[in-house]
Amino acid sequence: MLSVDTLLRSVWNEPRPFDPPPRTWRDWALVGALVLVAVLEGAVRPDLPWRFLWTAVVAGLASTLLWRRTRPLAALALASGVPGPLLLVTDGEFAPMYTTVCFLLLPYSLVRWGSGREIVAGAAVVLVGSAVRIALDGSASGLADLVGGFAVLFSVGALAAAVRFRSGARVRELDRVRMLERERLARDLHDTVAHHVSAMAIRAQAGLAVAESRPGAAAEALRVIDAEASRALAEMRAVVRALRWGEPADLGPGPRIGDLRRLAGREGAGPAVDVGITGAVDDLPPPVAAAIFRMAREAVTNARRHARRATRIEVRVTADATSVLLRVSDDGETGFPRPTAAPGYGIVGMTERAALLGGACEAAPGPDRGWTVTAVLPRTGTAA
Questions:
Q1: Band of the pLDDT at 162, cuts 50, 70, 90?
Q2: How far apart are CA 202 and CA 208, in angstroms?
Q3: Is 254 within 8 Å of 286 (Cβ atoms)?
Q4: Phi and psi (nearest 5°) for 329?
Q5: Radius of gyration, alpha carbons of the chain
Q6: pLDDT per position as a tens digit, 17-37
Q7: How many CB atoms lie within 10 A of CB 95?
Q8: What pLDDT score does 324 carry?
Q9: 142 and 133 in contact (C-beta within 8 Å)?
Q10: Secondary structure (H, E, C), 194-224
């Protein structure tokens, strides 16, 4: 059973999950709106004790929300620590302004974006601030309000923890998809290299067979080539077995650009697929040809699954002297996928594969309707 000490140590040592998003104009707009609301509330509620003082304090502390993601502990400590000394000045009278509900964003942000040490330290700050309030108030109602406040803070923290876990799971899933795409690329590279290495070994063996009439250096060189080629092929097979979790290596040729024509036609009641290839594609490096084929197949599969009321899918490959352009578009309705469609990571995988080969891939709504996937790869297939 997990002890309290072990739990605290794990929370204390937990790093930030990932870098928070930068401050945007929305943050400034939020702070400006809260300052305006605080001033209006102070103006229309004459029943508030020390209303001018507390209105100024609440309006000033609204600026801490600008650092709620980048400096969550400092923002929470400032918002929690400033009212304490002021209670001594006001004889323990605290103005219950409705605008202060906005400061619930600070503990939420601390649990959402802070590290484990920041979360523990922030909880201590809140506890100390609450103890000061109880000591200065001393009434039963103050204690009841404190219990209710802790319940609200616990709910906010639980919500932030749930969002944090879900975001972390999403990041981990994206990393898994990228690793799988790297594995697929490694397979293609292995198949290509293994094919050439196998040819080298065969030629070396043939050279040995005819080298008896020309002994000496030529025969020795052929033996070295044969030995090195055999070692390289064995090492590549070992690598690919590790990548494929023990599956045997496939030395057959990988997919080529011409294989895209197999995607053409109609599958069941789905949209028809039209494939067009322009330019010199026969001499493309196998990794580039395989990447174009796999990205086109993934884009066609996504269009068949998710494009609403689509009747046609176009696959166009254009090659020139320096690059290869892939464009897959459909004539479906522009918008979000169908509610019944399960979310996938096909675009992430295509983007990763293109980046590994020195290219780029993006998906966006088409100019008229439907969606368009565009990928550009260099002919050289320079891998990252």
A1: confident
A2: 10
A3: yes
A4: -135, 155
A5: 32
A6: 656 667 778 888 888 898 998
A7: 22
A8: 92
A9: yes
A10: HHHHHHHHHHHHHHHHHHHHCCCHHHHHHHH
